[in-house]
Structures are given as C-alpha cells and as structure tokens.
Specification:
Layout (H helix, E strand, L loop, with lengths): L10 H11 L1 H9 L11 H10 L5 H15 L13 H6 L2 H6 L4 H15 L13 H8 L7 H10 L12 H11 L7 H8 L6 H12 L7
C-alpha cells in the first residue's frame, strides 16, 4: 500500500456536497479549512499501532509504540514514521514483545497479525476490490481487531470515503451537540441523520471529530 500525505481525491468534492446539503456541516468545514484525512504508514504498521493503542492513553500508547519499534529494529529509534515489517515481528519471541511493553494478550494479537501478513492471508494488494463491509469482515478475523478498529483503519489508512463508525462515543457526542442541542438521540436516529452525508460519511465524521479535538489522528 502506497504511503501518501496528499489530500484524498474525493475530499474537495465531498466538502462542497456536505456544505450544500447541511448548514451545520458547512460551518464545521469553514472552521477547519486546512484539515483532511491522510495516510502516514503502510497497512501492517497502521494495524500494529492500533493494537498497541487499545485501552491505554495516547501518551502511554506512544511510549509503548516507540519501545516496540526499537525492539523490532533499533535503527528505527529516531525515525518519525517507521515502517515495521511483519516478518520481523513474527521472528520476535513473546518475551521480547512483552519486554517492549505489550501485555501478554497484545503480544498474541501482534503475532497473529504479523503471521497473517507474512503468509499472505491478509494481503493489502487485494483490498482495493473489496467493499467496505467485506474488508471489515476480513480484518475482524484477526485477534484483537474489532469492528471499531477496522472502521478506523478503513477511514485513516485506506481513506475510504463512506465509513460511519456509529459506535464511536466522540462521534455520538458531536452529533448530539450539533444536531440535537446535546439532547439524547438513539443510534437509529443518528444513522438516519447521517443518510444525507452519503457517500461521504467519513468526511462528515472527520469534521465532527475535529469540532471536539482539533488535533487530527494519523495512521
């Protein structure tokens, strides 16, 4: 998978459509004119980092990630966006992974992910032809990758245009804030509201997240 910091080719088209259809979205897009999704790593590295970051703070995840990267290859110690090779991770012992800061369970998850990339059962070259749901189904077969993690990967790494991670609490909070005056909305009501954002629900979600936290996440 090619690494790119360029704006997705659909981004400007999406912002024009969302601004035209939705006054609240128009305001958010105007407020954050310089932001867009961008890919910063290869597929394996992005998923490995997602596993490292599960259920711990961003600061703790960054620290464990750096230790993990150095355990995989000491030459990466000062590399801003290192690329981690799955074959190298497969060769590490569970003890080496735990010494890098991974829990026993996360070490198992990491090696399962690395084996699937190394043996070709997960092959990013074939993903371009898969619909969003089909790719999510493939990813959640990996130990430690649930639907939310798969959806984040589709948005931030695969740059899929129409992902809507409705289970994300930040997204739910932003929808209530901008569309319901913070009053309760059911998940079905949120899904219905988001229909007008198709086929660019990833972009709408991105701007709603930015309204809560201006610092973008990059995979």
């Amino acid at each position: 998978m090619k690494i790119s910091t360029m704006k997705p080719d659909y981004w400007d088209r999406a912002t024009r459509l969302l601004s035209h259809r939705d006054p609240a979205m128009h305001g958010l897009i105007e407020a954050y004119p310089e932001f867009h999704l961008r890919r910063r790593s290869d597929a394996f590295t992005a998923l490995a980092r997602a596993i490292v970051g599960q259920q711990i703070s961003v600061k703790a995840a960054d620290a464990v990630w750096r230790r993990f990267v150095i355990a995989v290859d000491p030459a990466h110690a000062n590399v801003a966006f290192p690329v981690v090779a799955p074959t190298t991770v497969v060769a590490l012992t569970p003890g080496a992974l735990r010494s890098a800061g991974l829990s026993q369970r996360k070490a198992e998850y990491m090696q399962d992910l690395a084996r699937r990339f190394a043996d070709g059962s997960l092959n990013p070259e074939t993903w371009k032809t898969l619909a969003d749901e089909a790719l999510i189904e493939a990813l959640v077969t990996v130990k430690g990758i649930g639907r939310w993690t798969a959806e984040m990967f589709l948005m931030f790494h695969e740059l899929r245009a129409d992902v809507f991670p409705i289970a994300d609490l930040g997204l739910q909070k932003a929808i209530r804030l901008y569309y319901a005056g913070e009053h309760p909305l059911s998940l079905d009501e949120m899904q219905a509201l988001a229909e007008s954002w198709r086929p660019y629900r990833s972009v709408a979600t991105w701007y709603l997240w930015r309204s809560l936290d201006p610092l973008p996440v990059e995979y």
